[in-house]
Amino acid sequence: MKPTLIIGGGIVGLFSAYFLQKEGIEVQVIDQTDMQDNCSTGNAGMITPSHIIPLAAPGMISKGISWMFSSKSPFYIQPRLDYKLAKWCLLFFKATSETQVKKSIPYLNHITLLSKSLYVDFQLEHPESAVALSKKGLMMVYQTEAVEKEEIELAHLAKNYSLEAEVLTPADIRNLEPNLEVKARGAIFFPGDSHLDPGALYSFLRKYLEEKGVKFLPNTQVLGFEKSGNKVNAVLTDKGKIEADKVLLCGGAWSAELAQELGFSLPLMGGKGYSFIQDNQPTISLPTILTERKVAVSPYGSFVRFGGTLEIAGTNQKVNMNRVKGIFESINQYYPDFQAKFPQENQVWKGLRPCSPDGLPYIGFAPGYENVLVGAGHAMLGVTMAPATGKLLAELHQKKKTSMDIQGFEVGRYN
To answer: What is the pTM of this model?
Structure first.
């Protein structure tokens, strides 16, 4: 029997392998890197059902234009002559309509809640994993009247989808963060959100899957596919041909190139983000988003990770230290007492979040193929949505009824 090949060893690929091996499927995971450090290991590790508004939200175009003129801004598209980028930007612009966003919200709501419940199950099933799912919630801190209005509107919207949301005063924030000053006009608190250490999760999953017989092929470049009719029979790599029963494209920001090899369109751009670790002094207790600067703050006891920026950069992985400076400068704007030290370039983690134009992932069968599935385009919510995506792909693979309606994630929606 031929194996199922998963192209992409990020967190989505690993959770797909996790649910497939539970079904007794022989799985091999191919990745072009050494699988030590990727988009899944250095992010904020937040599990955020509160994030039900897609990236392509109303108002994002005007904000994006103003941010384009600052090298330290939270969102940046590097102007360049690139047909794929121009097409992506046009589709992004169309997706920012109120109608499209209203269509997207229920899908994001259902997949993030499904993922959260799967994380709870995962932790119960693997107490040995030491993957601690913190249930401290998430605080969205704001400093300006304009953002306060936006965040309160979001809190009301979240409540319409049965999510808990509390509006906090500066005094409430002091109670939740007693160890240091938080310079804020107020905050929204989402008690249903969680966070974990993404590196610890990734390491555990990789080791667990190897023990369960999943074969990993790191440092392996996919060069093409051997096809007949509406099936892929084999994946062609720089290490030779690998025959396949089914193929899952979970290649993150590189999934668009793989789709092109297969003859269908998968509009996707890499959204480069950065993070760095600091000693947690004085101690920040709560996972937090510094909303005006779009910076995520993930505390893990003695250390804290700060991450942010979304630089639409294709698959360019060069570190732009000016953008790192934008994240760094936000720390003392919100935490005046925090002892921040600017990181060296070799201390900065970078990752390419795969961004679809409408902010919804691609999950399902590839157009024109009966044995190719896609799980890509999760943007900043890769860790949040990974278990649900893996579960849905395993269900489709086994021709089972899916755990939720996946029509909004249709892979061929731009073909």
So the answer is: 0.94
Dihedral pair phi/psi, residue 290, rounded to 5°:
-85, 95
3-state secondary structure of 77: strand
The pLDDT value given to residue 173? 98
Q: 42 lies in a domain?
A: yes
Asked if the structure places residue 415 within a domain, the reply is no
User: Does 414 fall in a domain?
Assistant: no
Q: How far lies 112's CA from each of 11, 119, 411, in Å?
A: 15, 10, 19
Give the CA angle between residues 92, 413, 408 to the nearest 5°: 85
Write out pLDDT tens, residues 94-125.
888 888 889 999 999 999 999 999 999 999 99
Q: What is the pLDDT of residue 320?
A: 85
Say how far residue 59 (Cα) sits from the centre of its chain.
22
Quick one: pLDDT at residue 35? 85
Supply the DSSP string of 176-245, one letter for each residue: H-TTS----SEEEEETT-EE--HHHHHHHHHHHHHHTT-EEE-S--EEEEEEETTEEEEEEETTEEEE-S
Structure tokens of 228?
């007949």
Distance, in Å, from the CA atom of 93 to the CA atom of 60, rounded to the nearest integer, reads 9
CATH number at residue 61: 3.50.50.60
Provide the residue range defining the domain that includes 237: 4-409
What residue ranges of the chain have pLDDT lower than 70?
Answer: 37-40, 56, 58-75, 78-80, 130, 313-316
Residues in the chain: 415
| SS3 at position 4 | strand
CA dist 294 → 142, 222, 254, 407 (Å): 10, 35, 25, 30
How many CA within 13 A on the CB side of residue 46?
30
pLDDT in tens, 119-157: 999 999 998 776 778 889 999 999 999 999 999 999 999
The CB density around residue 94, as the number of other CB atoms within 10 Å, is: 12
What's the domain count of the chain? 1
